[in-house]
Each structure stands twice: as C-alpha cells, then as structure tokens.
Predict the structure.
Amino acid sequence: MTASTSLTVMRNLKNILILLIFVCLVLPASTVLAATNTVCGSLKVAFYEHGALYYKNISGDYTGIDKDIIDELAHRTGCQFEISLESRVRIWSQMEKNVLDISVSAIEIPEREKYAYFINYITARNYALLQNDVPVRAQTMAGFLANPSLTVAVVKSFRHGVIFDAWLDKLRLENRVHEVADFRSLFRVFKAHRVDAIIALPISWGQLTVKEEFLENARIFDWASNDKFDAGLVISKKRVDKKIFELLQKAMQEMNEDGTTEAIFKRHISSSIAHELVLEKYKH
C-alpha cells in the first residue's frame, strides 16, 4: 500500500467517524436506538377488541390506545411486531402454553407472574352499569347481591379489581354471572336485557358507536371508587429474552415520563378520562 493510498484510507475513516458522531449528536436517542437495534427480531403481539383500547374506526381500520402504544414502542426500540387479533380467553391460553410473545392491557396477578413479565402503562377502575328497571334497593353492591333474581354479565377471564372480583365470586356461587367472549357480546346481552348489569370501564363504553342509546338504557354506579388496578403489556418469560423485556420496559418508562402515553390516551377518549388513566406516579 502506497503512502497516498494509506492517507486516503485514513481520511475516509476519519470522515466516517465524524459522520457517526454527528448522527449521535443530532438525532434523538430513541431514533438512533431504533436504527441500530438488532436485539428484538420479530415479536408476536395479540390484541383484543375492547372499547377505546382496540377498535375499528369509521374507515374500517383498527386503531386504539393499545395499537398506538405498540407503534410507539416499535419506533423507540426498533422491535418489529407481528400483529394478530384474538379473544381474551385465547390470549391467556396462548400465553400459558408459551405460543405467544406479548399482549396488551393485562392485569398482573400472582398466577400470571409464573410465566410472564408485566410493564404497566394504564390505571383504571370499573363501574357497574345497571338496567333502568333494577329496583332502587338493588342499586348497591350489597343490595344487588341480596336480590336472587338479578344477574350480571362479564367478559370471560377479565379481572375487575379486588372488590369487584370478590363480589362476582359470591354471585358465581349462585350461578348469577353470565360470561361472554368479548365486550361487544357484553353490550349485546345487556342491550337485549338478558342480564341486569354489566361491569365495565369508562374506556370500554366510550367508543361504542351507539353509546348515547346505550347510556340512555343504563344507570352508571361507581361502587368501588378505590378499587383501582394497573394494566399493561404482558410478556412471555419463556419466549422473550430478558434483554428484550428490559428494552421495552425502558422505552415504556420514557413514554410514561415524557407524557407520550397520556397523549395517546387523548387521541381516543376525552382529556378528563385520559388523565385519570395515567399511572399515579406519572400524573402531574
């Protein structure tokens, strides 16, 4: 190699080094990470239809809080997500059988910790929606429980918080709980007056295309105002490497801290409800 050739090589290397330094200084860290990350590969993510979390817009395309959360994580981490639509029952079955990588809006409970990590991004509480003709005496948790003729519907495999779950367990002992596959079915059985009540989140009924008609036929009760729970990503411990989990966890923490998560909520629900859904430690 001649002296002139060596000099040319050195200049090229210097130029490349300067360019890399410039890219790192100018571009946001999340963009650089997304451009250079090769850790994730392709991850299977299952959504389920539920109110503002995941729904079809007027164009017939799926959108929602959960979709935007996953899209933002893809942007920040460089992870690629293979999307599918499943029922909540099938999702938990697939998670337990280790055939699914990730799902969304899941509540962490001890039995699920055996096979999954959790990364929370939303907090909420359920409300009781009662038919207008439910007797006044039955319009409390105790009053409803005391009336053996009244029934309630819930989405199968859903968790509703400590207070509601204990109440539902008592009703199950009396065969007064009707379990359905998804929220659309929950709405249908309530609208058809096949049950006297349903348990749901404001985020659930807020996206109903017939919500005005629906709410005209329902009375809403805040029976468990302190029965809040956090929810978020559920990630398979067996299928997803710990490093990938930590990468997603870091990105999600940044989204919660910089207000991105709340901004996503506001795209799909009112600002007042959106702020209520922000995890307590990130509320300003």
